[in-house]
Design goal:
This protein has 299 residues and is an all-alpha fold. The chain has a single domain (58-298), classed as MetI-like fold (Orthogonal Bundle), CATH 1.10.3720.10. 73% of the residues lie in helices and 2% in strands. The protein has 13 helices and 2 strands. A two-stranded antiparallel sheet has the order 1-2. Strand 1 and strand 2 form a beta hairpin. The protein is globular, with a radius of gyration of 24 Å. The model has no long low-confidence stretch (mean pLDDT 88).
């Protein structure tokens, strides 16, 4: 039996060490904090699963804050996916396929993605103001009292429009890549059969975009569910707690109140929720993709 050469692991070892240093060690620190309580002076006392029990109890103060923030996060991510995925598909279908306009369109679509998150929040903090912001002044000119600092509905509208402006380009570019991979023979066959525009989209373009749409859904869910910088800069989690998402609640606990044990427990549960939902998304969409491939093979 020929011996197996294991020297290739030497190439992977530096990566494993970097991951262990940058991810595993901090994670173990968070786990350590989550089962202990601190009273200052770097003194810790064993608390077991006490913080997790309190966090998952909706009757406790920590639990009520956690569930309220969780529902806000889920609502925000649901709205974002419902807007950006269809809008990104429409934009991708409208983009040119050939000529110099392709390069120009791709550059323009990528511009919002190059802006840092804190700068995006600062831009919209000014842009949505009713006194000096173009967006806020335009809405007020319509006779609507738009004030995202005092009105929760206006605050939600502002951060949703801000996120749609910032990240729809990502969905559109991914969908555009999927459309570009479709051979011209598919369209030629559709024209010969006299297929309508809707039939071409439903039977050719959408199935070919299914894999990139899976990536887009996963990326946009994770980004929207972990959103922190933009709403913190624009609204600070207000007015009241109307835009206090889990990430902002976590920062309040860790840095505002210095409750490291509660913050560590919340961060672990937060991470598990993201992993669980992403796993569900991935499982459902890959199963649907496999069924579509099987149906195409039978045809």
């Amino acid at each position: 039996m020929k011996p197996v050469n294991q020297k290739a692991w030497l190439l992977v070892l530096p990566v494993l060490l970097i991951v262990a240093f940058s991810a595993v060690i901090p994670l173990m620190t968070v786990v350590n904090y989550s089962v202990q309580d601190s009273f200052g002076n770097n003194q810790f006392f064993w608390n077991g699963l006490g913080w997790f029990s309190e966090l998952l109890d909706p009757k406790s103060d920590l639990g009520s804050r956690f569930y309220d923030s969780l529902w806000r996060n889920l609502a925000f991510s649901g709205i974002i996916l419902a807007i950006e995925i269809p809008l990104g598909i429409v934009v991708a279908l409208s983009m040119p396929r050939q000529g110099w306009t392709v390069s120009a369109t791709l550059v323009l679509m990528a511009l919002p993605l190059l802006i840092p998150w804190n700068v995006v929040g600062t831009i919209w903090q000014i842009f949505a103001r009713g006194d000096i912001g173009l967006f806020g002044a335009a809405v007020n000119a319509l006779g609507i009292d738009f004030n995202y600092v005092a009105n929760p509905l206006a605050a939600w509208f502002t951060i949703i429009v801000m996120d749609v402006w910032h990240w729809t380009s990502l969905v559109a570019l991914l969908c555009y890549a999927g459309l570009k991979s479709i051979p011209d023979a598919y369209y030629q066959a559709a024209r010969i059969d006299g297929a309508s525009r809707w039939a071409v989209f439903r039977t050719i373009q959408l199935p070919k975009m299914s894999r990139v749409l899976l990536i887009a859904v996963l990326l946009r869910f994770m980004d929207s569910f972990m959103i922190y910088t933009e709403p913190f800069v624009v609204t600070g989690g207000g007015p009241g707690n109307s835009t206090t998402f889990l990430s902002i609640e976590l920062v309040k606990l860790a840095l505002g109140q210095f409750d490291l044990g509660k913050a560590a427990a919340l961060s672990i549960v937060y991470n598990l929720i993201i992993l669980s939902v992403c796993w569900v998304f991935y499982t459902v969409m890959t199963a649907a993709d496999a069924r579509a491939d099987a149906d195409a093979g039978r045809v």
